[in-house]
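step=predict obj=Cytochrome C oxidase assembly protein n=86
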Amino acid sequence: MLPRVEHELHKRRRSRNIGLLVVLLAFAALVFGLSIAKITNGDMMEGFDHQPRASVLPHDPNPPAKPAGPVAAPGTPGAAVSQESP
């Protein structure tokens, strides 16, 4: 049998594929490294959901006293009674 001769087009395509493999592996390594750095940073990993979080609020040395019972929403019939009683 005759040895199989590889065409120049296949050689160029193989070198491009190897180059693309190197770029994809570098990207995967970069994403992995950034993920590991974020996880090992030690910060609390909380998402930003437009809500105040107790973990980021400063500590209040004199917290307000809690009401004795349930508080009615303003504009409801129970709100007028609860505002007059204290």
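step=describe
The chain has a mean pLDDT of 79.
step=end
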